[in-house]
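User: My collaborator sent over this chain with a note saying "see what the structure looks like." That's all I know about it. Can you take a look?
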Amino acid sequence: MKRTFIYLLLVIIPVSSLFAQGPAALRTVTSSPAAVLSEEIILLRELTYDFGKIPQGRPVTHSFELVNKSKSPLLLENVQASCGCTTPEWSQAPIAAGTASVIRVGFNAASEGRFTKVITITYHNGQAKIFTISGDVYPMPTTSAPLNTSLSLIQ
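Assistant: Without extra context I'll predict from the sequence alone. Here is the result:
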């Protein structure tokens, strides 16, 4: 009997102390500065885009839409690509709370082969969001197609 009583005391006291704090204690935990910083301020509609097969020497572009989920205007500090063949373009104006903006990313398909490029958005005192583009560049023919001499027979 004593063992059961001691066991109940060891279980009930710690559990009851958790409930004694109530919802106010929970609110202080979730509203801490660390929790606010971990909230997503930017929502990207897509985090990756695959151009598929693209011809060498033909630049391609894609627009990424982002939404400001915060309650105040948001200024994108920088949008930087992992190499010079990828060029992001974005508005320097603040994005109003709850509205969307577009980052247009261009890729110069100068060399053939598979590629994956990373674009980093820096915002709100150094926070960062990353998205990628990828694709497969195939070489263009170096010569034009031969003349079809049978066309003169048809006339």
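A starting point for your reply to your collaborator: Confidence is low (pLDDT under 50) at residues 15-38.
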